[in-house]
Design brief:
single chain, 214 residues, alpha/beta, 5-stranded parallel beta sheet, 7 strands, globular
């Protein structure tokens, strides 16, 4: 059985729900937004800042100086500094903090982890047994993603398609930058699922079945 499952997903594809259902069906721990709080505690950056920038690739000095202090956790500057000079771009601090959390969660025990380059991070971590890892990518036709984003995420129908495309572009840019690989490319995953083909529940059933038999 594959004991560690990562699920990357297009926005509006239902990937979060599928991941949670998969974890419930297999009795595994589930991690998504919890990673933000854990990374914030580890890095000294505020959860709000990490949430706003975890898919941003802006890491210039001006960006760091303008945004870092504004979103710092109470009692911190929000920057890893020496003589008030940033030593690591904030985008890199966020990625590294989340990377450390993801590795520790995987080492802790069987789990399902959503997004945040977890497939790449764990595939290339010598502390994780690759034979226990199942990397999944969930996608769906644009029209279905837009419909779900309007109905479940409250997006304005007039701008929903543009927003869905923008969020997917940001996810791809983030992944491609930090992994030097291509987000959604089939070579990088063990399993790719069109969530519109089976629906969310049956997609989770399928992933669970694969995990148990692989």
């Amino acid at each position: 059985m594959k004991k560690i499952i990562t699920i990357s997903r297009e926005y509006g594809s239902g990937g979060h729900t599928i991941a949670k259902l998969t974890a419930e069906k297999l009795g595994l721990s589930f991690y998504d937004s919890e990673i933000i709080d854990m990374a914030a505690k580890d890095s000294g950056l505020s959860p709000d800042f990490i949430k706003k920038t975890e898919q941003s690739i802006s890491s210039g000095l001006l960006y760091t100086l303008l945004l870092g202090a504004s979103y710092a956790a109470p009692g911190t500057s929000g920057l890893r500094t020496s003589a008030n000079v940033p030593t690591t771009p904030l985008a890199d601090q966020v990625f590294n903090a989340q990377r450390n959390v993801i590795i520790e969660l995987a080492k802790k025990g069987p789990c399902v982890i959503v997004g945040r380059c977890s497939d790449y991070i764990l595939r290339n971590c010598p502390e994780i047994d690759r034979s226990n890892l199942l990397n999944v990518f969930v996608y769906a036709p644009l029209a279905d993603k837009v419909k779900r984003a309007i109905e479940q995420k409250g997006l304005d129908p007039a701008s929903a398609e543009k927003e869905v495309k923008l969020i997917d572009k940001r996810r791809a840019n983030h992944y491609n930058t930090f992994t030097e690989r291509t987000w959604g490319k089939r070579d990088h995953y063990d399993l790719l699922i069109n969530s519109s083909l089976l629906g969310l529940e049956k997609s989770a059933d399928f992933i669970a079945q694969v995990a148990q038999q692989a």
